[in-house]
Please model this.
Amino acid sequence: MADPMRIRAQAAGDKTTVRVLMAHEMESGQRKDAAGKIVPAWYIQEVTATHNGKPVLTAEWGPAVSKNPFLQFVVKGAKAGDKIAVTWKDNKGESRSDEATVS
Model:
């Protein structure tokens, strides 16, 4: 399984800023290794985020996203103590889900 995501969720008024750093190699399928063989594509295809179990974000990504991607978004109505969960799925069928508490 992949390394855990680093998720920070900070409330300010009625808005909460969520910052996520995902650990993933994100190969485009166009790069060649030292032997001249193409490195197979391996990238995150879908990212979802929930606030206390309710979906607040869905994103479809492709091979153009950089290694170890960073994502930031704002959630309205989240308050201290609420849970923000982020899940990603890649093109090889692997997935990762992590959760943070709003501070």
About this structure: The beta strands are 6-12, 15-21, 44-51, 54-60, 70-76, 83-90, 95-101. Residues 45 and 61 are 5 Å apart (CA to CA).
